[in-house]
Amino acid sequence: MPKIHSTLGRRLVLALAATLLLPLSAAQAQDGKQLRIGFQKSASLLTLQKSQGSLEKRLAPLGVTVKWVEFPAGPQLLEGLNVGAVDIGYVGEAPPIFAQAAGAQFVYIGNDPAAPEAEAIVVPKDSSIRSVAELKGKKIALNKGSNVHYLLVRALERAGLKYSDVQPVFLPPADARAAFERGAVDAWAIWDPFLAAVEKQSQARQLVDGRELVHNYAYYLAERGYAARNPQVIQLLFEDTAAQARWLKGNLAQAAAVIAPLQGLETEVVERALQRYQFGVKPLTSGVAGEQQKIADAFHGLALIPKPIRIADALPAPQ
């Protein structure tokens, strides 16, 4: 019961916040006059889009405004999407699976290309740990339900360990970094730009990144009704995202200089992270959906989610 009350409590708080803080936005969203985008500050492309105001210009002829709603990580963003605080969100692989298993209502509307190098398991520079196999019995910090949750599962599996062989310590990125640097945990599973930051600033050492283990796709999700009612808005969002992505990849140093102060990071850190991410949103293919189903099945097999789910149930209806 405590876990159920905790989950319901979080949703009620978010719902209340949405009611008290976004009354006009909610009304505008109902009539399609406002697009509310849930994003994380670590999502560099969306942070760039927000700063440039390019999407607002594309949507202005439709009479649609944009509201950017920031969340600390994917699981919290999915809670916001589920209670109606946002219309569209951008997250990694694992959060939608945990959210769907908890009954959240959303649809996948697109994904960015795989970026396996943009997440890794790291240890302090002076750690005696030299391989994933040596993590047996160790404490590993990670954000529960985030993309690195699956990275950890796969890395342990390849090293001949079970998930139960390690001690996961569930912390959001800021708290995880503090625990990592004071030695309260032995390793940290984390994504960029937090990964690039701890590598540069603390000389953290990678044990393994996502290559040959995970795809690390990033997904665009939408409230089902919003997606059905506003295909033109979504199309313009994707057109703008693609245009900004092309500029970013062709101008990494300049893009990093714009994004870095918005993320509170050094330009060099942001540029390193941008090099490891891939951008270019596309509609989900059956192959990408199948890879997402593999993650869902693995999580259910480890009892990380309470019931099996079908990714197909969270895909838009065929047009």
UniProtKB/TrEMBL annotation:
Keyword Signal part of the UniProt annotation: yes
Annotated signal sequence range: 1-29
Keywords linked to the UniProt accession: Signal
Record-annotated Solute-binding protein family 3/N-terminal domain positions: 34-251
Pfam family, one: NMT1_2
Highest taxon, organism lineage: Bacteria
Keyword Metal-binding carried by entry: no
PANTHER family assigned to the protein according to its UniProt record, in alphabetical order: ALIPHATIC SULFONATES-BINDING PROTEIN-RELATED
Family note: Belongs to the bacterial solute-binding protein SsuA/TauA family.
Protein name: Sulfonate ABC transporter substrate-binding protein
Classification lineage: Bacteria, Pseudomonadati, Pseudomonadota, Betaproteobacteria, Burkholderiales
